[in-house]
Design a protein that fits this description.
- The complex is a heterodimer of chains A (263) and B (331).
- By secondary structure, chain A is mainly α.
- Chain A contains ten helices and one strand.
- Helix content of chain A is 75%, strand content 1%.
- In chain A, helix 9 packs across helix 10.
- The longest helix of chain A is centred in the middle third of the chain and has 34 residues.
- The two termini of chain A are 34 Å apart.
- In chain B, 34% of the residues lie in helices and 31% in strands.
- The longest helix of chain B is centred in the middle third of the chain and has 14 residues.
- In chain B, the strands form three sheets. In chain B, strands 1-13-12-5-11-10-8 form a seven-stranded mixed beta sheet, with helices on both faces.
- The chains are: A mainly alpha (263), B alpha/beta (331).
- The interface between A and B is medium-sized, with 31 and 35 residues.
- Strand 1 of chain A pairs antiparallel with strand 9 of chain B, so a sheet runs across the interface.
């Protein structure tokens, strides 16, 4: 063939063979469709829409709120809603590809299984952090300005947003691990959603019987995040270490399980 | 079950003569054996037909070869690379079309080929686009190249499947039922493409459409219930399986001739068909020499005139059915 001599073969990617191509493809699922726009609008409405509404009601009826009130509300909504979004958005990423046959198809190319999973983790992390956290942070500051409230110190805001990013990566890693482990959507959705819904109840039970478990739970990370945003400093590093470590463990388990998957 | 090895594999190193070699390859799913100790050799630059009824173990074998599933025991190599531990390297030189091809339906045909090509080539863009265009042309999808795949018919998906499987001009093409679910025109096109691809690839394809196999394959393997029943060049299989067959056309009364022929100990069976006032006999024999010496003499006389006589060929379908039914215990 005339073109054969000109084409440059892909070589030497080792255990991440095919990763770059999968990154491009996973990214096109967000950027090449209207997914990024839809998700941006949904999360702007769910987080900053509510913040703006509460600020508006405060201004017009119950008396104006402070920046700190708005900040507390913003991070409470962000921490409460976005993990559900992560689970719902990514629950079919692995199982859907397995069921539709596209996983088998791409894995018939020189794509390693680790690259398949890590590309999903990398691209979803980037878009989720950009849309569910960073965009919301920017919009929140614009809302504060619109209501004539003083801005939050940039470092405090950045620290709060970073903590939320870490929190969402935890839920993403957990969902991907479940996606690699189960062949139906039920447990992939059910396990994290049940935990999210019942975590306050579970925390109550844990505080009575296994109090050492409390700082290990992901919600403790959000509480530390709130302290950082309010400029109070950290009272414990344990939630950071726990969530980061668990995210790594979930990712490793997802890779381990997916390497053994049979198609 | 005894395996009928119709031809001895050539005594040369794997890397010289065979693209695929498996030895005792077996797979069990939840206690059910899907493949029982398959030992297969696929010669380089052949079109290798992998035949068997549904559930014979064809797709399982293909998935094992591609590293999509792991063997329970045994093993194999493609281009000398181990199928279990060097799968990525094997897939770099192999193209695959699944039985039911699946793609990302939000992509167009062109985007699908571009995505697939980038697993093998990093560029340059122009050469990549030329290769994609060439592939689209080969499967006659140029006019639909920029439409989303979700609107494609089964035949178009199959053609796209062939295009994506050969986008990197692989040394080995593995096609799982490439002509299944296609109309006769689609089947003809797929077979033509397979013959074209043979110029630079070995084609290993599974099927249960025997006409197609007889048309394009040069080597076949017959599977049933996870076992290899036969593996041989198709000519050898057609001419040599279980004795010989002779065709005879008789004008006039055939009953006396029929009685004399069926009375011979070396005649294992006679099929009779009547066409345009003539009688056609297909005579299966166990002793070729006796048949050639005696058959004509036995047929003539009593008003019968033999208008045609010659060595017949076993049809692949006949061989296939005999082998599969034989391995099923005659059922």
């Amino acid at each position: 063939m005339a073109t054969e001599q000109n084409l440059i073969p892909v070589r030497g990617e080792g255990w991440l063979s095919g990763f770059r191509n999968m990154l491009r493809k996973e990214n096109s699922r967000w950027a090449g469709t209207r997914e990024w726009l839809t998700q941006s609008l949904i999360w702007l409405a769910l987080v900053n829409g509510i913040v703006a509404l509460v600020l508006y009601i405060g201004f017009t009826q119950s008396g104006p709120l402070t920046t700190m009130d708005a900040l507390n509300l913003f991070f409470m909504l962000l921490g409460a809603f976005t993990p559900f979004g992560v689970v719902i958005l990514t629950q079919s990423d692995v199982v859907g590809e397995r069921q539709s046959g596209t996983a088998e198809w791409v894995l018939s190319a020189p794509l390693s299984r680790d690259a398949f999973m890590l590309s999903k983790l990398a691209v979803n992390s980037a878009w989720i952090m950009a849309i569910m956290v960073l965009l919301q942070g920017v919009a929140f500051n614009l809302i504060l300005a619109a209501f004539g409230l003083p801005a939050v110190p940039a470092l405090n805001m950045a620290a709060g947003l970073t903590v939320n990013c870490l929190h969402l990566i935890f839920w993403l890693a957990l969902t991907l691990m479940l996606g690699a482990s189960f062949h139906s959507r039920g447990p992939i959705l059910g396990i994290p959603l049940t935990f999210l819904l019942l975590q306050d109840l579970l925390a109550g039970i844990a505080s009575a019987y296994v109090p050492w478990l409390i700082p290990l739970m992901p919600k403790s990370l959000l509480l530390q995040g709130m302290q950082l945003v309010q400029g109070q400093g950290l009272t414990s590093y344990v939630p950071f270490v726990s969530v980061a470590l668990l995210s790594v463990v979930f990712t490793a388990a997802a890779l381990w399980r997916f390497r053994r998957e049979e198609f | 079950m005894e395996t009928t090895q119709l031809s001895e594999p050539e005594a040369q190193p794997a890397s010289n003569g065979y693209v695929i070699e498996t030895s005792g390859l077996a797979k069990t799913f939840n206690g059910t054996t899907a493949l029982k100790g398959l030992s297969l050799r696929v010669p380089r630059n052949s079109i290798f037909g992998f035949l068997g009824p549904n559930g014979a173990g064809k797709t399982t074998t293909i998935k094992l070869l591609l590293g999509l599933t792991r063997p329970t025991s045994g093993g194999g190599a493609i281009f000398g690379h181990d199928i279990a531990s060097e799968s990525v390297e094997i897939r770099r030189h192999t193209g695959y079309l699944a039985q039911v091809p699946s793609y990302y339906t939000h992509m167009t045909a062109r985007e699908t080929l571009r995505f697939k090509a980038r697993f093998y080539y990093s560029g340059p863009e122009r050469a990549l686009e030329e290769r994609i265009e060439e592939s689209l042309e080969m499967v006659q999808l140029n006019d639909k190249a920029d439409r989303p795949i979700k609107g494609f018919s089964g035949g178009e998906r199959q053609r796209l499947g062939i295009a994506q499987a050969q986008i990197h001009h692989p040394d080995l093409l593995i096609l799982d039922e490439p002509a299944a679910n296609l109309d006769p025109m689609g089947r003809r096109d797929v077979l033509r493409i397979m013959e074209d691809l043979r110029r630079h690839s070995t084609v290993f394809y599974s099927t249960h459409i025997l006409d197609d196999v007889q048309r394009v394959s040069d080597t076949v393997a017959i599977m049933n219930r996870g076992e290899l029943l036969a593996q041989a060049p198709i000519e050898e299989l057609l001419s040599g399986a279980g004795g010989a067959a002779y065709n005879m056309t008789i004008k006039g009364g055939y009953e006396d001739a029929y009685a004399r022929i069926t009375g011979q100990a070396w005649v294992s069976g006679v099929n009779v068909a009547h066409v345009n006032g003539r009688t056609m006999l297909k005579i299966n024999v166990t002793d070729e020499q006796a048949a050639e010496d005696e058959l004509l003499r036995l047929a003539v006389g009593g008003g019968s005139v033999v208008t045609e006589f010659g060595r017949g060929r076993h049809g692949l379908e006949e061989i296939f059915v005999e082998m599969v039914e034989g391995s099923n215990g005659g059922h």
